[in-house]
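Researcher: Structure prediction, please.
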Amino acid sequence: MKVARHDGGAIVHDPSPVKREVGAADEADVRAFLRSYLPDVDGPVRHAKTCLYTLTPDEHFIIDVHPHHPRVVIAAGFSGHGFKFASVVGEILADLVERGSTSLPLDRFRIGRFGDKSSRSR
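Model: Predicted structure follows.
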């Protein structure tokens, strides 16, 4: 079983100096969770590591057509929880590529929400 703590962490511009070892305090947090909610899983650690992933400033995905290149479709910022949405994101991307639009609501995911007013609306 994979168990992890998600706390956002610090913004990393260069991953090279990031400490990759999991410390005792990190493990203690996860074990406290396990003891409360999954006590039968609180066994020996087989492997532990620090993960880095991408997030947008508002922690929502970007799913949109590139504002300056209408033949480019963008899907980004999925780290941490994007895998759960793979089927619907695939459907949206197929719609955007094949038809140029989708019937599914995308306002929350538009690239222009970060201030680039040149993003096209659909």
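Model: The CA atoms of residues 69 and 119 lie 10 Å apart.
Researcher: Thanks, that helps.
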